[in-house]
Design a protein that fits this description.
Layout (H helix, E strand, L loop, with lengths): L1 H43 L8 H15 L2 H36 L4 H33 L3 H24 L4 H26 L12 H35 L3 H36 L3 H37 L2 H33 L4 H54 L3 H15 L1 H13 L5 H23 L2 H23 L1
């Protein structure tokens, strides 16, 4: 149910962003949108001040709730709130420093400098509010109330879309967009705190509950989570910064369009991976190692299987989609970025599941250094390849280390921590899901070559026509017998319900 709630939220958010993204790009223009993407990358690094605390809150709240230790849960949440409050102040100070340094970091025309600085400052406040909200969000996630979190996120996303539409429609620019983000961060903080009070009335937050021992527990866990988080930030945001520093700012827009689509694939997978951290933590508290291993095996297979139809569509028909969605001028450049990053994500899907499981088991130390090495190689390769190959070189600088980490280290960590052999990992994470998608890929390829879509409505209709091939392949190749039986029961129940409704 938690996974379905996350996916439901994703679908709604994806639809909203689908219509909103071209609206933003065309209203701002390539240069200003590129600056907006740079502002997002610069302030995104302030998210490093999370310091892994939210992950610690989610993990330990799940453990303490499973054990019925409400006192320890209160100490954990109170200590985390103290840490995040200090981080929020630091975020604002760093945002001021980054705003002052912008002329030295990027090639910005004088008329764009002041708005960019204001947007960075507003972004610093937004990050600070989000950090504090992370304590309450992590608490709710630790108790696995994902349906409520997803509902809230959907509501806020709809509000954001409406506000952005109004701001840009009235001639607003990046300052207006930054203020929209800030306002929604404040609303999220207040709403999360209210939800915590109503859903978890036994959780007590107070200064007296802040303890050095609890802070040490958080830091001992979050130190490695911080490395994971900071490496992820380096991977996620370094591309735009490299492009902004070495290439025209407008090139950021072409890269961001392709890269943003791969985020949809990652978000679908997060519907599974986000629920694994508290679930595996609770299983570990119950000393049920076999259940953890079984959940992991199933998750790497079904997680990859669920996201593959999106990724196969991007690989086979991505440039065509971008041409219809954003305009033909973005088709080739952004389409190349999309294909390069999507190829890496096909194998990285299981790597994301590995990471979430290891965090839940508090065995993510080794992965933190792997991610850090990947982030460093990503940055160096992107810098080397940017000038000779442009944004394609930056995409390759991201894809190569991600593929290497996913194919080599993902199975290695799973074998050492969960006793899943490399052969079993490859079979569950890649061979069965990819084999299942072969019919879907062939149908998509046929559409692309013999019936190329002339409109978005036809494009989506073709994708819908190809979905039965994906379902057939999944049924025959990727699902186990018990999963087919469960699907039979579910379909039977739905059919019986429909029949009863029709008879009534």
């Amino acid at each position: 149910m938690n996974v379905l709630a996350n996916w439901g939220a994703f679908v709604i958010v994806a639809v909203v962003n689908f219509f909103l993204s071209p609206y933003i790009v065309h209203h701002l223009g390539d240069t200003v949108y590129g600056i907006w993407a740079l502002v997002g990358s610069v302030t995104g690094y302030l998210g490093l001040l999370d310091l892994g605390v939210r992950s610690a809150v989610t993990r330990y709240l799940a453990r303490y709730a499973a054990a019925g230790d409400t006192e320890a849960a209160g100490r954990m949440a109170s200590s985390a709130l103290a840490l995040f409050s200090a981080s929020a102040v630091l975020a604002l100070l760093l945002a001021g420093s980054l705003a002052a340094a912008m002329p030295h970091l990027f090639h910005l025309s004088p008329e764009y400098l002041a708005p960019a600085r204001m947007a960075v400052l507003a972004g610093g406040v937004t990050v600070g509010l989000s950090l504090v909200a992370g304590v309450f969000g992590g608490t709710i996630a630790g108790l696995q109330h994902f349906t409520l979190l997803s509902s809230l996120d959907v509501g806020l996303e709809l509000c954001r879309a409406a506000a952005v539409w109004l701001v840009l429609g009235r001639g607003g620019g990046i300052i207006g967009l930054a203020l929209v983000q800030l306002s929604l961060a404040l609303i999220r903080l207040v709403t999360y705190r209210t939800m915590c009070r109503r859903l978890i009335p036994w959780l007590r937050l107070s200064r007296d509950s802040v303890g050095r021992g609890t802070i040490r527990t958080i830091i001992s866990f979050s130190g490695y989570s911080t490395l994971l988080h900071s490496s992820g930030m380096l991977i996620l945001y370094s591309d735009s910064l490299v492009i902004g520093a070495l290439l025209p700012v407008s090139a950021v827009t072409f890269f961001a369009i392709g890269a943003s689509l791969t985020e949809y694939g990652r978000t679908v997978l997060s519907g599974i991976s986000q629920t694994l951290t508290p679930m595996t933590s609770a299983m570990e508290a119950a000393s049920d190692k076999e259940a953890v291993s079984q959940a992991f095996r199933r998750s790497i297979r079904l997680g990859t299987l669920v996201v593959l139809p999106i990724l196969v569509t991007f690989l086979v028909r991505g440039p065509s989609f971008i041409g219809l969605w954003m305009g033909e001028g973005y088709r080739d450049a952004s389409g190349s970025i999309l294909r390069i990053l999507t190829l890496a994500l096909c194998f990285a899907a299981s790597y994301q599941i590995v990471t979430a499981t290891m965090i839940g088991l508090n065995q993510h130390r080794s992965m933190a250094f792997i991610y850090l090495a990947e982030g460093g190689v990503n940055l160096v390769l992107s810098l080397i390849l940017a000038r000779p190959f442009g944004i394609v070189g930056v995409a390759l600088g991201t894809a190569i280390p991600r593929l290497t980490a996913s194919i080599y280290y993902g199975p290695k960590v799973a074998r050492e921590a969960l006793h899943v052999s490399r052969v079993a990992f490859a079979r569950e994470a890649w061979l069965r899901p990819i084999g299942a998608m072969v019919p879907f890929g062939l149908v998509s390829l046929a559409f692309e070559h013999y019936w190329r879509a002339s409109s978005l409505s036809l494009y989506f209709a073709q994708v819908a026509l190809a979905i039965p091939a994906a379902l057939l392949g999944a049924w025959l190749v990727a699902l186990d017998d018990d999963e087919r039986a469960a699907a039979h029961r579910w379909l039977g129940d739905r059919w019986a319900g429909l029949a009863g409704t029709a008879a009534g």
